[in-house]
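User: Some background: our group keeps a shared notebook of sequences we're curious about, and every so often someone picks one and asks for a predicted structure to add to the entry. Today it's my turn. The entry only has the sequence so far, pasted here. Could you supply the structure so I can complete it?
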Amino acid sequence: MKKILLIVGSLRKSSFNRQLAGEAAALLEGRANVKTLDFDSVPFMNQDREYPAPESVARVRTEVGSADAVWIFTPEYNYSYPGVLKNLLDWLSRPLKEGDPDRVSALTGKKAAISSAAGSSAGAGARAKLGELLVACRADVMKDPQTGVKLDREAYTTDVLSLGEEERAQLAAQADALLAYLEA
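Assistant: Of course. Here's the predicted structure to add to the notebook entry:
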């Protein structure tokens, strides 16, 4: 069974994207081994501390490396992805071995999917920029389908992600597509 690592770009416990990742995990249940990456202890990227990598960085690199794919769920902050997610990806994009001329990282060739729950844009800006970043990190990004959930004003008062039929269908189609992408 394939291993899919969910990465939530928000550290907030009840974030909408954490809830969306939970919905995706439920859709993949019985079809893939799914785990959510815990990266809140990863320090700010600092080349002075790169080798040997801090323990928390080594751990997330190992988890990403052992997964068949990562599925990233990102909020949209100012039409882009959050700094905590960028910091994680900066660490993951660095060579695993100091001085490696091929610069092989935990993301090199890693299959990746992107989803977002955000405001009126449904995270379109964050998903587009994140896709560009992942390609620059040499990940193998599944471009379509992506899921973008538009949060209404009520969601911000209740902290509850409420998916409609169309959004559930989009997420299910993306889960199916990711599984097929892993077989390609």
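Suggested note for the entry: Residues 3-183 form a domain with the Rossmann fold fold (CATH 3.40.50.360). DSSP finds six helices and six strands in the chain.
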